[in-house]
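Problem 3 from the worked examples.
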Amino acid sequence: MRVGRAIALGLIFAVSLAATAQAGDSKGFSGEAAYYSDDYKGLTASGARYDPSKFTCAHRTLPFGTRLRVTDARTHRTVVVTVTDRGPFNKNRVLDLSLAAAKALRMAERGLIKVTAVVEH
């Protein structure tokens, strides 16, 4: 009886956690993403030089080094990126992705895409 109750509570917790991540807490969020232009060069806010061949991103508040699993809401393609910069500075966007991440998501033709992002552990 106690084991069954513990399993049921565990399942309720897992479903609740998944719903919370989709609702936009610090573990997961969704919104519009853009990507760095082909011409962008320079240092990121973390102090690292931007490398268009690496899977990185800009986020307004997540700590540098945070890994995110980013999924294109339309195609369901997924990449894992690391936060190395601050932004985006457009209030309607949640992420700026590196060129490598954008290419992997095949978003160049669309420019902006709707994404879901979840913190990787």
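Problem 4, a separate protein:
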Amino acid sequence: MAGKETTITAHWKGGMGFETVNAQGITVRMDPPSESAYLTPMELVLMALAGCTGMDVADILRKKRQSVAALEIQARGVRADDHPKVYTEIELVFLLTGDGLAPEAIARAIDLSAEKYCSVGAMLEPAVPIRTSFRIIPGKEGSA
């Protein structure tokens, strides 16, 4: 195996529940919605995508000297009715607040994340279309 290795361990917690832990000891509990109020594996996929692209966009906009006070990403996934019930479409809406934000810079940052930097999106995109949009939220700096 070439490249950087990642190791996760999943511990069965009974029923269909699992608690996963990474090498740093950070845990996430997963269960199907019928058994508990924990996260589902498919919710974690959307969370991973939103977090991955969010990190990229925030970093790119910082380098472009855009004064982002708040960034929120709303992720919506539509799943197939039949097993394995994969996502058939994903939509990401970026909500940004800040002084003098340039729409062109935001659009370019989102494109760069999708085309070059976000590894989660790169893994998902061949199998599921990912649509993106953004809105600049007017208001006081720091409120979104």
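Solution to problem 4. The chain is about 30% helix and 35% strand. The chain has a mean pLDDT of 94.
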